[in-house]
Design a protein that fits this description.
It is a single chain. It contains 22 helices and 37 strands. The chain is an alpha/beta fold and 749 residues long. The chain folds into four domains: 208 residues, FAD/NAD(P)-binding domain; 122 residues, FAD/NAD(P)-binding domain (3-Layer(bba) Sandwich), CATH 3.50.50.60; 154 residues, PurM-like, N-terminal domain (60s Ribosomal Protein L30, Chain: A, 2-Layer Sandwich); 195 residues, PurM-like C-terminal domain (Phosphoribosyl-aminoimidazole Synthetase, Chain A, domain 2, Alpha-Beta Complex). The strands form ten sheets. It has a seven-stranded mixed β-sheet, sandwiched between helices. The protein has a six-stranded mixed β-sheet with strand order 5-2-1-9-22-21, covered by helices on one side. It has a five-stranded parallel β-sheet with strand order 11-18-12-13-14.
Length: 749
């Protein structure tokens, strides 16, 4: 990972998490490109390995075994991970457009987004057919098939008689047996184009043995809810249609104005550069090398990783690039679903369990390489910019340069300037970012109190736009916990020293995330400060307004109230585990979804159900923040450990002995707190101490309204909201005020 001694000079954006990029990330983690800041954009955080797909369908591999954890690979490579769907490129401005967020600026882009079966042009195919790619769609369709096959006999039609279609057909039949009839339709004169006649004979015999009907020379012209129509006028009834035809590239590649083949694949030179944009690279299925086209196969995608990394490195360093020379022949191993495979290479053909063993060994070795990552030392750069980083001035001289800041604000003003101007016109803001001054100014409306909060967070994710959103929601939660309505905020952003263009992109992405969540909350950014720091960080001063008599106060908690928590716990331990590469991508995905859930609606629901006291559960953990509510009146809280909602993976990590670095201090702050023996399953007591970022609200609700409150919260999207305990009268057996009771034991600070 690029540290302060190796400031970033180039932004490299890798679009897609295919085989090539997965291996490239491993290589980059072992030998980084000095000066390159790498961002990976993928619509999935766990990328399927297509080589294991038929084996997964057959039941030989679990979902986890056939997926590559892209978050873990990015952490290893020091790359930022952006979970999002790419909608296109702007080659002239070097932008990557990602759905639902500002575009990403790049100095160089590499595409490895794979291919999809060609569905366009066949009426009904996009609506009724299940494509073989993207793989998540195929897996979801296969799960539906298995569920329905448990109760009735099904008719399955597979369109496409290449290796993928044939392999899926024989594998599905092996799994379903007599619970389904299968029909394989192929447009060509014979199955398995590109394979020798002996291989075709083996599969023709196998398909017949398994009573799979095969129709070659058959073109599907329409797909309906009940089956498919062919060009010959026949109708083939089907409950499910799987589309495994010739591959096509994502439509946005050609729509972005890049030079493509007639099938929409990116045309690249032997150095894997787009023929019309030398700073765009392509690898895997999405790319076709001019003059040396090869089948769209994972074999070639894997082999492209080494030359791609070498050429990205050479491009950044200004050295000549090396041509990629693809192999002409390769061994294909096609599974038959029963623990055997067919080998195909030139004239070679054969079916045996030994070939499946070989295929299994190759696939598992590939996945092990991407899962078991070595420990690497921090690289040290020696470039001139690195020397500049060691000599950067501090104090006010550490500010982001005025030209860079001005360009960032110009981009943000183009997107949000109308809201800034409207705030001034409406009188909400007197001095703000529409005409920046030494400070911001606003006058609270008569009868309203001003509520102010301050938070400062170092980035816990590499995606700075996402971090800006999380940090803003975290800061606003203090306002929500007090019942206030957000009005405005000031931001203090820290970005690592880098080349000006890289610094600008960091600041733009971070502040773009801030503005996104402020706008959603009905607030505006009215000022701030930017400076250089060792790691990206963001501080926010949030301003809110409220009628003084409607403030929610921690000290207003009352005996007899039920404690309601709006979000699950476990953020701290999950991100601690991620730093050690001991999580699953899905765990972090779910944690981020929870962190991005605003507490604004929850605060209103809690108030509507009689809450007078609330707090947001953040760094001190649920136990620490609850004790802050109990101490003013010396109350006791009884906590039901079994009722504490936990994020997926949190308890597993805690049981392994993992914990946030702040957890010991949270434990110490409770001064003698001891978990009662046998109180709950392992890890649940530690969950009380886990620090949260953008955690939920904890409030006291009258007992008679608690059930309705939880129901309303869940209906509003807080699916894990629930009651976690109750407040009782002071317990005088403890010398200090405030106490927690777990199960039948009283535990006090």
């Amino acid at each position: 990972m690029n540290g302060p001694s190796t400031p970033a000079t180039h932004d490299l954006v890798l679009v897609g998490g295919g085989h090539t990029h997965a291996l490239a990330l491993r290589m980059l983690g072992m030998r980084p490109i000095h000066g390159a800041r790498i961002t990976v954009v993928s619509d999935v955080s766990a990328a399927p390995y297509s080589g294991m797909l038929p084996g997964h369908v057959a039941g030989f591999y679990t979902w986890e075994e056939m997926h590559v954890d892209l978050r873990r690979l990015c952490a290893f490579a020091g790359a930022a991970f952006v979970l999002g769907r790419v909608e296109g490129l702007d080659p002239e401005r070097r932008l990557v457009h990602v759905a639902g967020r500002p575009p990403l600026q790049a100095d160089a882009i590499s595409l490895n987004v794979g291919s999809t079966p060609r569905l366009t042009g066949v009426p009904g195919a996009e609506t009724w057919a299940i494509p073989a790619k993207p793989v998540p769609q195929l897996l979801a369709g296969w799960e539906r098939v298995k569920a329905e096959a448990a109760g009735r006999s099904l008719r399955l039609v597979l369109v496409g008689g290449g290796a993928g279609g044939v392999e899926l057909a024989v594998t599905m039949h092996h799994v379903l047996g007599g619970r389904a009839t299968l029909t394989l339709l192929h447009q060509g004169a014979h199955l398995l184009p590109g394979h020798n006649a002996r291989v075709r004979r083996i599969f023709t015999r196998l398909l017949a043995e398994r009573s799979i009907a095969v129709h070659t020379g058959t073109t599907v012209v329409e797909v309906t809810a009940d089956g498919v129509h062919t060009a010959g006028g026949a109708f083939v009834p089907a409950d499910f249609v799987f589309w495994v035809t010739q591959a096509a590239a994502p439509s946005w590649v050609a729509a972005s104005g890049l030079a493509t083949t007639p099938d929409g694949f990116l045309r690249v030179t032997p150095t894997l550069q787009a023929i019309d944009h030398s700073w765009i690279f392509g690898a895997g299925d999405v790319a076709t090398v001019d003059g040396a086209p090869r089948p769209k196969s994972g074999v070639f995608a894997v082999r492209m990783a080494k030359p791609l990394v070498a050429n990205l490195r050479a491009w950044v360093e200004g050295r000549p690039l090396t041509p990629y020379r693809p192999q002409r022949q390769f061994l294909s191993l096609i599974g038959t679903g029963d623990g055997q495979a067919v080998a195909s290479r030139r004239w070679l053909a054969g079916r045996s369990a030994a070939f499946w063993t070989l295929k299994d060994r190759i696939d598992r070795r590939f996945m092990t390489k991407l899962a078991e990552l070595p420990e690497m030392e921090e690289p040290q750069g020696e470039a001139d910019l690195a020397q500049s980083a060691r000599m950067r001035c501090l104090g006010c001289a550490a500010k982001v340069g005025s030209p860079s800041l001005a360009r960032v604000m110009e981009r943000l003003r183009a997107e949000h300037g109308a809201a800034w101007q409207e705030a001034v016109r409406a009188g909400t803001v007197l001095v703000g970012l529409d005409a920046p001054d030494d400070g911001a100014a606003f006058t609270p409306p008569p009868g309203l109190a001003l509520v102010q909060t301050v938070d400062h967070l170092p980035a816990l994710v590499g995606d700075l736009h996402l971090f800006g959103r999380i940090a803003t929601l975290h800061g606003l939660s203090d306002l929500f916990a007090m019942g206030a309505t957000p009005h405005s905020a000031l931001a203090a952003a820290l970005v690592p020293f880098a080349a000006p263009a890289v610094t600008e992109e960091s600041l733009y992405q971070m502040l773009g995330g801030v503005l996104c969540e402020l706008a959603a909350a009905g607030a505006v950014l009215i000022g701030g400060h930017s400076a250089e720091g060792s790691v990206p960080a963001l501080g926010l001063t949030c301003n809110g307004l409220i009628e003084p008599g409607r403030l929610l106060r921690k000290s207003a908690l009352g005996a007899g109230e039920i404690l309601v928590l709006t979000k699950p716990l476990g953020v701290g331990v999950l991100f601690a585990a991620e730093m050690r590469r001991q999580t699953r991508a899905s765990w972090i995905d779910t944690a981020l979804e929870s962190m991005l859930l605003s507490n604004q609606a929850a605060a209103a629901i809690l108030r509507d159900h009689g809450a007078r006291a609330a707090t947001d559960v953040t760094g001190f953990g649920l136990a620490g923040h609850l004790l802050e509510m109990l101490r003013p009146a010396g109350l006791t809280a009884e906590i039901d450990l079994a009722a504490l909602p936990a994020l997926p993976g949190a308890l597993e990590c805690l049981r392994r002995g993992l914990a946030s670095s702040l957890a010991p201090a949270n434990r110490e702050a409770l001064d003698g707190l001891l978990a009662p023996a046998g109180a709950a399953e392992p890890g649940r007591f530690e969950l009380l101490l886990d620090p949260q970022t953008s955690g939920g609200l904890l409030a006291g609700v009258p007992a008679e309204r608690a059930a309705a409150c939880v129901e309303a919260l869940r209906a509003a999207g807080y699916r894990e909201a629930g009651t976690v305990g109750r407040v009782t009268a002071p317990d005088r057996t403890f010398p200090r005020s405030g106490a927690l009771r777990l199960a039948t034991d009283i535990i006090a600070p």
